[in-house]
UniProtKB/TrEMBL annotation:
UniProt KW keywords: Signal
SUPFAM superfamilies (alphabetical): Calcium-dependent phosphotriesterase
Domain of life from the UniProt record: Bacteria
Organism: Rheinheimera lutimaris
InterPro entries: PhoX, TAT_signal, TAT_signal_bac_arc
Lineage: Bacteria, Pseudomonadati, Pseudomonadota, Gammaproteobacteria, Chromatiales
Name of the protein in its database record: PhoX family phosphatase
Length: 669
């Protein structure tokens, strides 16, 4: 979601609120990164990394800067990054390199299930119809080959699963918000436009992709779908609601931003800016609400006012309005802020909120490199100003034949501290960890049990002494080396005094990408990091690298991030409306980088006022799926700033884009 989205009647300014006012130390000065890297290479750490990378590092380290570059054994048979970079621009269209084609697919409103109600261009579809149509504002996405549970090699048929992050009143209704209190019918439609779409798709003999109508796999999961809480928070007194007096269930998933997927063939959707959907007007909010920015006057979309009222709408009032938690929804926000696991191959499956992975503004989630017999490791960023990067390590080891969701129910959550010498530490958020317990006691913070720690993940990370980051967005793990990359989209609020080696720029309006190597194993407690890329205008240099941005690759506000199987790093941008309108970067875009050479080329520019977010591909890398979110973001009812993808005078619609190479080759070559 753009961080400066404007709307005629809704205040969306709090979508990425700063709620971290903890006193965690920031480093006083920018560390000389050249020195830091020299130490990184020459010290024992560098030796350890060299050992881990083996001979290929030895080959790379003969280069003049000795960068500890990862190994990239290309799967592709054609040279990668062979295309001509797309120029920055402001066309109301998708622009891809010469020799590639792009077409819109599965836009908001596409008939998906049930009676397959057709999309009505004047936005008069009902809530019941929206429940059977593709949702709004596409975001994270994954293509599951139809044979995922077997070979997993199909590149012509599969389940495309994607998030719907939020809604735009000016586009979803004919006249935007036109009455208050909110009509329940409108609210029903808005809740239905959130969540996740599971679409069974296949490629025709002519090469075009289509939805498989009447497939039992086609499914909408919405902001009202019944879900279960699993892991340590299940049954906690703080998730008891009128709907679930035993604290085991909740309804819906909201503000689903980035995504992940598991090695066992399920989808992970991430709840990001969920706090704003609720209101708690009590004189004092519990820390489970206040630290996440639950509003005190009204919910972002006023769903709590839905009239005629019903329990499914009343739950957005999270105040203490009845005698106890079994009779109201004071705990409803505590059932949000989680990673949700969905089995797309079982249409009757109940989504599971995996509470062991922590509660915050989850941007996305990415598995570390898998090793048989070792724990699974997952990384997730908390996209709010000055928030943190987390890592989960499962208690049980991974074995391909028995892996499943149980691995996500039991383990240890850690938060990252980026030291100024290029080293880093994972700090356990575990009530039984003596270091953590001592820090909590010293800070006079009390947690009643591990469920309480997880419900208050941000507070626990404050206590642990994590490094405040410039809005962590997506992560990506190199398929061969296990090296982890994370986008830090921007942070205009960082002052000179608050800069540190990992967040080196004050008023960082263009963002950067950080990366690290775990020491020894993916589950290690220490790592070594450097900055891969400082984003910015032409001429922006990343210190102590040969990377200086040019017209071919200048960018701002990196957000989506993904490694393809060939080891290319795809970078998607989410610049605000003003940054797109006034800056040198043009519309939001997607670039692709070689992580070894740092060669970067712009591959795609999106239509007007959109965000490029969400990416996946077929196993043969010959079809790339990319999502275009909120084209026409600054539209008023009937006055649209984009008409993509339908053209003419049509209202804009978020959609997936299918990209192929005209010669049938590998995407990115
Ligand atoms: Fe939903 Fe942080 O972007
Ligand atoms: Ca995002
Ligand atoms: Ca963003």
């Amino acid at each position: 979601m753009s961080d400066s989205k404007t709307n005629l009647s809704i205040d969306n300014s709090g979508v990425d609120p700063q709620t971290n006012f903890s006193l965690n130390p920031t480093f006083a000065a920018i560390v000389d990164s050249r020195m830091a890297r020299r130490n990184f290479l020459k010290g024992s750490v560098g030796a350890a990394v060299a050992a881990m990378l083996g001979g290929s590092l030895a080959a790379c380290s003969s280069s003049d800067d000795g960068e500890p570059t990862p190994v990239v054994p290309p799967v592709a048979t054609t040279p990668l990054l062979g295309f001509t970079a797309v120029a920055a621009g402001r066309a109301d269209a998708i622009v891809v390199p010469q020799g590639y084609s792009a077409s819109a697919f599965l836009p908001w409103g596409t008939p998906l299930s049930g009676t397959y109600p057709p999309f009505l261009a004047d936005a008069t579809n009902t809530g019941a119809e929206q429940e059977q149509q593709v949702g709004m504002h596409h975001d994270g996405m994954h293509f599951f080959p139809i044979d995922t549970r077997n070979a997993g090699t199909s590149s012509t048929e599969g389940l495309l699963v994607f998030n719907h992050e939020y809604i735009d009143h000016n586009l979803i209704h004919p006249n935007g918000i036109d009455s208050m209190p909110r009509p329940a019918e409108q609210v029903r439609k808005e809740i239905a436009a959130h969540g996740v779409t599971v679409a069974h798709i296949q490629q025709n003999s002519d090469g075009n992709w289509q939805l498989v109508n009447n497939s039992p796999f086609n499914r909408r999961i919405t902001g009202a779908t019944p879900m279960e809480l699993s892991g340590p928070v299940r049954g906690s007194s703080k998730v008891i609601t009128k709907y679930s007096p035993d604290g085991s269930r909740t309804r819906g998933t909201l503000n689903n931003c980035g995504n992940g997927f598991t090695p066992w063939g399920t989808y992970l959707t991430c709840e990001e800016n969920w706090a704003g959907y609720f209101v708690n007007a009590d004189a004092e909010q519990p820390r489970e609400h206040s630290r996440y920015g639950v509003p005190s006057s009204n919910g972002r979309y006023f769903w709590e006012t839905a009239t005629p009222t019903a329990d499914v709408y009343q739950r957005f009032n999270a105040g203490s309005v009845a005698a106890d938690a079994t009779e109201d929804y004071r705990n409803e926000p505590n059932t949000f802020g989680w990673i949700v696991e969905i089995d797309p191959f079982n249409p009757d499956s109940v989504p599971q909120k995996r509470t062991a992975l922590g509660r915050f503004g989850h941007e996305g989630i990415i598995f570390g490199k898998l090793e048989e017999g070792k724990p699974v490791v997952l990384y997730s960023g908390d996209d709010s100003t000055f928030e943190y990067i987390y890592k989960f390590v499962s208690a049980a080891p991974y074995y391909k034949n028995t892996a499943g969701g149980h691995l996500l129910n039991d383990g240890t959550l850690y938060v990252a501290r980026f030291n100024d010498d290029g080293s880093g530490d994972w700090l356990a958020l575990d009530i039984n960890n003596t270091d953590f317990a001592a820090k909590a006691a010293a800070a006079n913070v009390t947690f009643s049990d591990q469920a309480d720690v997880l419900l208050n993940t941000r507070l626990a990370a404050d206590v642990a002494g994590a490094t405040k980051m410039d809005r962590p967005e997506w992560g990506a793990v190199h398929p061969d080396t296990g090296e982890v990359y994370f986008t830090l989209t921007n942070n205009s609020r960082r002052t000179d005094e608050q800069t540190d080696a990992a967040n080196p720029r004050a008023a960082n309006v263009t963002g950067h990408i950080i990366r690290w190597h775990e020491r020894e194993t993916q589950a290690a407690m220490a790592f070594d990091w450097d900055i891969f890329l400082l984003a910015g205008d032409v001429g922006t240099a990343t210190p102590d690298t040969e990377l200086t941005l040019t017209e071919d690759n200048h960018l701002a506000s990196p957000d989506g991030l993904w490694f393809d199987k060939n080891g290319l790093l795809w970078i998607q941008t989410d610049m605000s409306g003003s940054q797109q309108g006034e800056g040198p970067f043009g519309n939001n875009q997607m670039l692709v980088a070689d992580p070894v050479t740092r060669q970067i080329k712009r591959f795609l520019v999106g239509p007007t006022d959109c965000e490029v977010t969400g990416i996946s591909a077929t196993p043969d890398m010959k079809t790339l799926f990319v999502n275009i979110q909120h084209p026409g973001d600054r539209s008023a009812p009937g006055d649209f700033t984009s008409h993509w993808p339908d053209g003419g005078s049509n209202r804009p619609r978020s959609a997936t884009v299918v990209i192929t190479k005209d010669d049938g080759g590998i995407i990115g070559s």
